[in-house]
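Ticket 4471: requesting a sanity check on a complex prediction with cytidine-5'-diphosphate. Repro inputs:
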Amino acid sequence: MPSSPFLIVAIDGGAASGKSSTSRTLSERFHLLHADTGSYYRAVTAELLRRHVTPEDINGVEAALAAVTFTTRVTGRNAEIELSGHTIPDTEIRSAEVTAHVARFAAIPAVRAALLDYQRGQADTARRDGFRGLVMEGRDIGSKIFPDADFRFFLFADPVERARRREQQGLQDQVAKRDTLDSQRLQESLQGAVLIDGTHLTLAEVVDTIAAPIAAKFASA
Ligand code: CDP
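Returned structure tokens:
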């Protein structure tokens, strides 16, 4: 009997485009390890803010990065990042302060380089822990981290709708501003990806659209 394939699913998209809810649901449906790379950039940002490092202080950023190690704690189906052995509480990584700074820190090449191999390594973590694959969400997953992913999706949603979603969640966010800071990465990850406009779709409809080809690939193996 042929063994089931190990599938890598890349989901990129702008701020508040529904990547996290979609990825979480897919991870549950297919037993994929879920890696939310936005939370990795947020954790690094929280750590830099704790150390009072500013995005202008590149030497300070590099020194702080050299002083921390990145490991993973798998909780359920979620691959959480640990910095020097500790996870950073969700309340801190989703705080208004981290949200306001993350895109600036994420634009620094040393920050992106520090997380590159770590993110690729999540495929090994998923295999080791017996998952059927990996669903990784972010801004550059299909372009830089896993350009050979089995599936590459790009989630789009109208900026007004996205700002409304954030407000409904009671979160302070500048969706359009972060998109501007992230725009080059977003454009690159859009190339060659399957574009899904979720503006007028429910979460279930977005998930079903993405799940269909994944289910077909597992079924054909
Ligand atoms: O909360 P939301 O889904 O809007 O964003 P996120 O996925 O938590 O990502 C927070 C920020 O991290 C983004 O605005 C990007 O600046 C940065 N990021 C990145 O540069 N590359 C990634 N692969 C993921 C996130």
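Notes from triage: The chain has a mean pLDDT of 94. Leaving this open until the requester confirms.
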